[in-house]
Write a structure and sequence with these properties.
By secondary structure, the protein is α/β, with parallel strands linked by helices. The chain has two domains: 94 residues, Transcription Regulator spoIIAA, CATH 3.30.750; 238 residues, no CATH class. Helices cover 69% and strands 6% of the residues. It contains twelve helices and four strands, in the order ββαβαβαααααααααα. It has a four-stranded mixed beta sheet, covered by helices on one side. Helix 1 links the parallel strand 2 and strand 3. Helix 4 packs across helix 9, helix 9 crosses helix 11 and helix 11 packs antiparallel against helix 12. The longest helix has 39 residues. It is elongated and about 110 Å long.
Length: 378
Amino acid sequence: MPSSPSPLLASSWRDDETLALILRGCWSLRHDPPGFEDVAPQLANGSRPARITFETTGLDQFDSSLVSLLLHLHRYCAEHDISFDRDALPEDVRELLAMALAVPEKRDTHTMSRERDFFYSVGQASLDLIDEFHDLFQFLGECLFSFGRLLRGRARFRRRDLWVIMQECGAEALPIVTLISVLVGMIFAFVGAYQMADFGATIYVANLVAIAMAREMGALMTGIIMSGRTGAAFAAQIGSMKVNEEIDALKTFGFPPIDFLVLPRMLALVVMMPLLTVYANVVGMTGGMLVCLGFNISTKQYLSQTLEALDFQSLALGIGKSVLFGILIAGAGCLRGMQSGSSASAVGTAATSAVVVSITAIIVADSVFAIITTLLGI
């Protein structure tokens, strides 16, 4: 005897162990068809059936809502050792059900989403941070082994790639480095000139620009420029190779990806960053000189004050920073590229992350340098 009030679904017991589900009418998502929750009470009430069958003589039309109900029933029957008889279903329904069952279901499909409390969020963030540090230290270790192979002459990469990357990192970056360095030098000169004019010490603007560019701004601005220009390019290039499975191909042919992809990029940037920094220092001081000409400071006076203000420690400090900044930029770009996912959007995310990480690392490293030099009186 039918026991469901739905016009589309009813059920009746054929014997003590067989439950027949009667499907009828037009099943459409637009008409809010019955779901598994409408059948579940009948499976729970009384004795559980040993077999479920169907009667579809009154079934008219159907869409995915019917297949969804049958999938839930099939899963329930498999979990509770109930025979699921699909022979009475229309052929179209049986084919759709077979296609749906042919694809394995994801494990977490039916996992209930829970509200993340504070402690859960902190714990998850801590685990993510541990994974980040694990990947970082593993990457650093592989880079050190690769550098060791380079010193022994056993690193496997194309020397031609090194020269090409050096050109991309060096000569092709000169226009943007020139523009930014000139503007930074002019800004320092303008700020210093207006402040020192009240004390009649405008000549010392040359000292200010020279020391600021040599110790801090030359290396710092060049590092930030190269982070946005070269670090992002490294991440995008390696990420694209990962999407195209070129990195897997390198591994298949026995080429270490760290040697072939990371090592030449890191060497190129470490070599070019000091040269770009020295160039940025000179250009920035030239920009300061252009401003000082408007404050009645001759070129000879400016150059004399600049040479007097500069010393070996200031120049060496800026160049030393640039070497470290080059390692940080290349490392962040290559690491994010190696960690990139296998989609186009993942490559963009990797490039963005490389820029953020490298700039943050540069600022932190520069702050550490400032603290150490202050404590040492350098």
